Amino acid sequence: MQHAITDPYHFETGEYRPPSEGGSSSLLVRLTRNCPWNHCTFCAMYKGEKFELRPPSEIIGDIDAMHRISLELAEISITSGRDGVITSSVVSEFLRKTPGLNFHTGVGMLISFLVAGGKTAFLQDADSLIMKTEDLVEVLTHLRTIFPSIERITSYGRSRTIARKPIEDLVRIRKAGLNRIHIGLETGDADLLKTVKKGSTPEDHVKGGKKAMEAGFQVSEYWMPGLGGKTHSKDHALNTAKVLNLINPHYIRSRPFTPRPGTIYYQNARINELDRMSPKGQLLEIYETLEALEVTSRICFDHDGNYWAGPDGRLLLSQSYEGYPFPEKKEQVLTLIKSGIRCYS
């Protein structure tokens, strides 16, 4: 939602970020509002919301407002003898001095970012690379200048958007400061991509993923076990592995499919309950995908949708953001999944 800028401390914050970014207390900088595609039948994010490109001047104004707050907090900390450390009493004093401040969730996010050392930032919302290259470079350059402590900047990116960008533009964006891109592959199966209205083909995914790798980004590809139900499980598993083998990204992150209320896929799942994947079925499909992988990626289960329990009753797979390095840990992961499958037999 757009606001008139009357508060020198006002800035806008979106709702969504990858789990790995929330865990690292990233600074959330909103470059666009909502999703430029927004037709995926399984997705409940941004539904009913209009996509908007924010002008660079507005985004830079947000960055400056966040910086203004950080300077105020640092000054209070230093003058109160806390040597720049931000404590709860420093925050309380800042709020006391600025009674008109609207303490929205973004201020809490900014404080978490500063307390954690100010090392990571995430560009919101769904596809920051859809911005004009010049505009994105301007914003990145300003962000890096204002917060020089930042070591990593991350964004979501659609395969098709990346595939359409000239490689020279992608390199410019990376050199301006964007380090990591999270891409929603979901599946490498052409028919299933059409069914869920992803707006991308397997060829788009391969081209976009390889192009992002070539430009020097750290690439995370998300795949969605169980997305095709029992009917499409085998094709989903094997064709996803084929696409990932061609890209060979730095990270492959599992995001198991769960029908979300308000989505077309949720309605269809309720109608056709018999095609729903059981926990055992999802594990069998994951096993088939991982067995077919020939990559040097890290395989991550860093989401609470990866809930399966092992023989000891504990979580079957580590939810570490860094995951399991392949091929080194491939057999270990396959063995773990086999043990989980037996638990659901």
SSE topology sketch:
Blueprint (H helix, E strand, L loop, with lengths): L18 H4 L4 E4 L1 E2 L18 E2 L2 H24 L8 H10 L7 H11 L4 E5 L8 H14 L5 E5 L2 H6 L2 H10 L3 E7 L3 H6 L6 H13 L3 E6 L9 H15 L3 E4 L9 H8 L7 H13 L6 E3 L23 E2 L4 H14 L2
Parallel strand pairs: 1-4, 4-5, 5-6, 6-7, 7-8, 8-9
Antiparallel strand pairs: 2-3, 9-10
Question: What does this protein structure show overall?
Answer:
This protein is of the alpha/beta class. It folds into two domains: about 1-155, no CATH class; about 195-345, no CATH class. The protein is about 45% helix and about 10% strand. It has helices at about 20, 55-80, 90-95, 105-115, 135-145, 160-165, 165-175, 190-195, 200-215, 235-245, 265-270, 280-290, 330-345, and strands spanning about 25-30, 30-35, 50-55, 120-125, 150-155, 180-185, 220-225, 250-255, 300, 325. The strands form two sheets. It has an eight-stranded mixed beta sheet. The model is unreliable at about 1-5 (pLDDT under 50).
